[in-house]
Amino acid sequence: LFVDGKPPVTSATFSAAKGFQRDNTLFISGAAIVELKGFDPSSGVNTIFHSINKSPFETYKKPLVFDKEGEYLLSFYAIDNVGNKEDEGQRNIVVDNTPPVTTMSIEGPQHNDVIAATSQFTFQATDANGVKETFFSVNNANFSRYSRAVGVKNLPEGEHTISWYSVDMVGNQE
Fold first, then answer.
1. Which of 70, 86, 91, 125 has an alpha carbon within 20 to 30 A of 139's alpha carbon?
2. How many secondary structure helices (H) and strands (E) does the chain include?
3. What is the C-alpha separation between 2 and 81, in angstroms, rounded?
């Protein structure tokens, strides 16, 4: 005779091509596949249940796919073969498929598209879940990581092309 008074334990395993975790929230780009696994060394796991965004709990049968942009609350628990129920576990998932938006500004004297040699340009990038880095290029040269205002005093007089893009925390590139 063996007495089993301990509930099972369920773990949530995530696989996503691009993403990061902050506290109890997984931020991803593209799609995340979540697999729930229960463990009970005494009587074994009978059933795992899951709920998405506080919907009614249902029996977990196959990995869950999160691929539509938005925020999700995944709740789950397991019951073992003698009726012990674990406390509900929760994970927050944010699917972010939107790239950041970056704008360039000119600081210093300017008239239309003509700027003084004492001017400099700056970039401001925004993204709902954070910007990781911004890059820029002058006259189709290799892109450089942007970290502070860029002066133009060393550029020869004439027309120049400035290109830029930013990457957010989950790898979306504008």
1. 125
2. 0, 15
3. 13
pTM of the model: 0.78
Which phi-psi region, left, alpha or beta, contains residue 67 (left: φ > 0; alpha: ψ -120 to 50)? alpha
Residue 75 CA to residue 12 CA, distance in Å, equals 10
76 and 85 in contact (C-beta within 8 Å)?
A: no
Task: Yes or no: say if 140 and 161 are a contact pair by the CB < 8 Å rule.
Answer: yes
Q: For residues 24 and 17, what is the distance between their CA atoms, to the nearest angstrom?
A: 19
Tokens of 154: 């060393």
The residue whose two tokens read 């929760």 is 90
- Sign of dihedral through CA atoms 51, 69, 17, 136? negative
